[in-house]
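Deliverable D5.2: sample structural annotation.
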Amino acid sequence: MEIEFDPDKEATNLTKHKISLKRAAEMETLSLKRDLRFDYGEERFRAWGLIDGETYCFAFTTRGERVRAISLRRAHDKEMDRNVP
């Protein structure tokens, strides 16, 4: 899967979460859900999975056939319990 993202969003994610948005392409997805918490003006998704054996949460949208990254961060234990079967 090819991940596209805004360069400023990449810089922010690296500073805040210490991981490149590019790494989302390596994630072994365990669960995927639509993000219905807010009206974002576009359909958004959240995926939970593993990168290098560690749990991560990946927020993204789709634009045609492309995956546009919003955020990639370490997942909290509680959200893994809530969202991963």
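Annotation notes: The CA atoms of residues 7 and 21 lie 10 Å apart. The mean pLDDT is 94.
The annotation will be released with the project's public dataset once the embargo ends.
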